[in-house]
Design a protein that fits this description.
This protein has two domains: 140 residues, Response regulator (Rossmann fold), CATH 3.40.50.2300; 68 residues, Orthogonal Bundle (Arc Repressor Mutant, subunit A), CATH 1.10.10.10. It is 54% helix and 14% strand. The chain contains ten helices and six strands; from the N terminus they run βαβαβαβαβαβααααα. The chain is elongated, with a radius of gyration of 25 Å. The two termini are 44 Å apart.
Length: 217
């Protein structure tokens, strides 16, 4: 079986050399090393490696040069697997990258401690798999909980809104929940108020409430 060929981009020379040595000892071939995004792109275009291992922040600004280079690699050489390494879980940037297709990974640098697991991760990415750092998953879950617009609703109000989303009238909701139509109307008023929907006609506000429910699912 052919050795995986990798290009490694990291501006910290000691870390880069350490990773390169680790990869070579694990029977991967490091076909190029870069300390900035421009050199990374040049090497990837020249070598067409199986993998590009990229620090998310590199010179000259240490902003998102690695991420920008990863975007270009994905566009120009979609067959090249990409592993982005980051010091912190940056949800927005990671999700944008992970949504770009297969063969993508996002790991925190602190995760590169178990050599066998790290090498197995690289193999999965090279075969078209996706790898997401557990810390990023936890951050995504926390972000979703913080931003869930339905958190303001009571369990009963959520039930009413779910039935609204099914297209049921107030009378139909009342029959389903074994409550009076007047009770349903009160729940609907509370839902519309808690979701701070604009003061328009009730029918339109119901539609907006349903849209909010569907987007939050």
């Amino acid at each position: 079986m052919a050795r995986l060929r990798a290009v490694l981009a990291e501006d910290d020379v000691l870390l880069r050399e350490g990773l390169a040595s680790l990869l070579e000892r694990s029977d991967l071939e490091v076909v190029g090393q870069a300390g900035d995004g421009a050199l990374l792109l040049a090497l990837v275009r020249e070598k067409a490696p199986d993998l590009a291992i990229v620090d998310i922040r590199m010179p000259p600004t240490h902003n998102l040069e690695g991420l920008e280079a990863a975007r270009v690699i994905r566009q120009e050489l979609p067959q090249t697997g990409i592993l982005v390494l980051s010091a912190h879980a940056e949800v927005e940037h990671a999700m944008e990258l992970l949504a770009s297709g297969p063969g993508i990974g996002y790991l925190l640098k602190s995760r590169v401690t178990d050599v066998a697991e790290f090498i197995e991760t690289l193999g999965r990415i090279a075969r078209g798999g996706s790898v997401v750092d557990p810390a990023l998953v936890r951050e995504l879950v926390a972000t979703r909980r913080r931003n869930d617009p339905l958190d303001v609703l009571s369990p009963r109000e959520r039930e009413v809104l779910e039935l609204m989303a099914e297209g049921r009238s107030n009378a139909g909701i009342g029959r389903r929940l074994w409550v009076t139509e007047g009770t349903v109307e009160k729940h609907v008023r509370h839902i519309l108020a808690k979701l701070t929907l604009p003061e328009t006609d009730d029918d339109h506000r119901r539609v907006l409430a349903v849209i909010t429910y569907l987007e939050a699912r």
